[in-house]
Amino acid sequence: MTISKGIPKPSKEELLAAALDVLIYEMMLEFGIPANLKGYRYLSDAIRITYYEPQLASRIMEGLYTRIAEENGTTVQCVERSLRTALRRVKRLRDKTVLMKYFDSEVCPSTKKFINSIADRLRRIDIIEYKNSRIPPV
Prior knowledge:
mainly alpha; Arc Repressor Mutant, subunit A; 6 helices; 0% strand
């Protein structure tokens, strides 16, 4: 890969972060959550934060939602309501195979379980990809 003069080569961490964003985006599309919903952004943020900081998963309201609210200049209540709205889309999925694929159930899980399950799945994908050396060298 050639890089033009003056454009820095991305670090391995930046490549991993971009790959994580793509995986989250693809999962959200699969769940039928449109990108124009605030809940899409908050859910993406929640999954990304939980991916990097799993300890926040146990403190969803006072830890995770507060952080998302601060980063987006809104309230914890707005974050919670937007996440519920986004997950309502998932509950209305006609094709329940998507839920079976991710949760081994045809019922959409709670917000906390949804975020934790997706973040955990992404961590496992990352480990597998890394072990198989499919991440391009930097």
